[in-house]
Design goal:
The protein is mainly beta. Helix content is about 10%, strand content about 40%.
C-alpha cells in the first residue's frame, strides 16, 4: 500500500459468491510471521471492507480488491459490508 495501490478504503469482493476466499494483511512486505500479521482470514465469505494504510502489504486469493468511493453507489449490491479498520488491529497487536 502506497506503492502499487493507494491507501484508503477498499472492499474485497469474492470472485464467486458461493465460495470462500483467502486474504492476509501484513504490517509490511518483510514480516510475514505471526508478529507481522495485521489481519488474516482463510475462510472469508461475502464482501469485507478494509481500511488499508501506507506501508501495509495485502495478499488475497479468490477475490478482487475494489476501492471504495466517497459517494456510495445505491445500485451497488456490495454496499452491505463488514467494516474492518486494520489500524486498530495493528495497534492491538503491537501492544501485546
Amino acid at each position: 500500500v502506497g506503492k502499487d495501490i493507494q491507501p484508503g478504503k477498499y472492499k474485497l469482493v469474492p470472485d464467486d459468491a458461493d465460495k470462500e476466499y483467502k486474504y492476509a494483511i501484513y504490517k509490511d512486505s518483510y514480516y510475514r510471521d505471526a508478529s507481522g500479521i495485521v489481519r488474516e482470514d482463510y475462510a472469508a465469505t461475502g464482501v469485507v471492507e478494509l481500511n488499508l494504510t501506507n506501508g501495509q502489504y495485502i495478499e488475497f486469493l479468490g477475490a478482487k480488491l475494489v476501492r471504495v468511493t466517497e459517494t456510495p453507489d445505491p445500485t451497488d449490491p456490495t454496499e452491505t459490508t463488514e467494516e474492518t479498520d486494520t489500524t486498530k488491529a495493528e495497534e492491538s497487536a503491537s501492544e501485546s
